[in-house]
Design goal:
CATH class of the largest domain: Alpha Beta
Strand order of the largest sheet: 2-3-1-9-8-10
CATH superfamily of the largest domain: HUPs
Strand content: 15-25%
Helix content: 25-40%
CATH topology of the largest domain: Rossmann fold
Radius of gyration: 24 Å
Largest sheet: 6 strands, antiparallel
Shape: globular
Length: about 575
Amino acid sequence: MCGIAGFISLNQPIDHPKSHLDSALQKLKKRGPDAQGIYRDENCELGHTRLSILDTSPAANQPMTSENNRYTIIFNGEIYNFDNLRSDLEKSYGVNIKTSSDTEVLLNGLILEGKSFIEKLNGFFAFCFYDKIKNYYLLARDRFGIKPLLYSHQKNQFIFSSELKSLMCYPISKELDQIALNQFLQFTYIPSPRTILKKGKKLQPGHLIEIENKKVSIDKYFTYYPCKKSTDDYVTAQRKVKDLLNKAVQKRLISDVPLGTFLSGGIDSSIVSAISAKHKSNLETFSIGFPDEPLFDESKYAADVAKHIGSKHHCFQLTNKQLFNHLDQFLAYLDEPMADSSALNVFLLSQETKKHVTVSLSGDGADELFSGYNKHQALFFSLQKNWKTKLIKNYGNLSQLLPSSRNSKLGNLGRQLHKLHQGLNLNNEERYFQWASFMDQKMVHQLSDSYYDVKNELHINKSDDVFNDFLFMDFNLVLENDMLRKVDLMSMSQSLEVRTPFLDHKLVEYVFSLPSKYKIDHFSRKKILKDAFKDELPVEVFNRRKHGFEIPLDKWFRGELKSFIDDEIFENNVASKKEYYQKMEL
């Protein structure tokens, strides 16, 4: 995994200093501390920072250029089926691939087969491919947006990078996007294709950009929903899910550097760790504990799973004081507003994990794929026509009498009941956005005139299965823009590569082809996933209530962090000085 950045001139030779790209790459140094390279000609400049994972020799450094000097590529990610693709290219075209890196396979595949080669890739990626003779560029992002690719198209220039703060090293407008700011208030993150900057964009998952004859075009190359429905019975589907996930994990264990797994003790990371332990001896697993916050500490459960699978387990116990001491460092790595408090946990876990390994597998994506969230249970509840649904619809507003907080069981119940009641009287699509939002549309409208419905920019495909539609919207909204972005930014801030087996596209496509009744019922979420692996792990893993990777921010803001909020957020902050909010109201 690496960092990429570049500048493409659309109508005249490059005339700006090389220092712009140097600065952009410096911002990406944590993404690639092992090597740095630059390609520059009159048309473009392409830069790369390398985190060596496969073929750690200098021969695999980037930018990588073909022997005839016509084609060049910069690539961030991993192609897990590169060995098979390499064999196919060698047999079909007689090409001689010299390194054992996936980059050279990708370069030759694009040279020989063009953009259609992207559909053969199994992995996560963001890249820029350049044909010097045709002055043609191809940029692409992986199917689900695991790896980021940001860009700015202004007048006669096209700039791109792995991070926004790197993109800003070029002279682009720093004007804020008011719509993006309001979307942040609604969701606590900014959905693609927007960024906090009006002139900055995120390439959406499964999309590519072509630049040819000075024209820039964006197309979608991957669609997986709605898909052809599977006719498999439940037992057959269990077997296939288990087989596909086993294969997905095995592919992601390939590495020329030390590798381990995140292990929270929850279902998803426990399954990934259990599979990994079967195929990798002396597997190292990593978790984080919060001795000062027992309600949020799951380290005991992680230790129990580690003992069961026989891994070498590392649990990092972090006091509140240690957490607070890392806040400034943590905030420096967020390149645009994001209010997911668990990002701090991922940051600290990655920091400690990096001391032992360079690659870690995680359970990200399983909640969105198999229905792991409370809102999935709420949707299932809302679709049932019974007295309980009617009761909440008619009297759910009484939940406002309960405390609303994540810091206690009663407060959490009150918060969930109130949100459930808010969504029950809406249609299915509006219900989804009500439950996926931190702040509802009415509140955002009250705050600003610049409200823009995010549905206009989401690729919302509908089927005759409302529940699967719900999960698909989670993939498009929550997974890409919150979960994956959080993990990418926080892990790469520590030069740690995180791989996500649940997002193997073959597994995703198959699970979306299954009926929703295989994923959720009156008794269980993630039904088929639990049943497929029930013999692999202790029963307690599957029976324990889900607990998010959270921290008690609201409690801290009223206590230990009050002075930090007053000094850093309300006083010495650009947003405060520009009066984006009123301190007294907050």
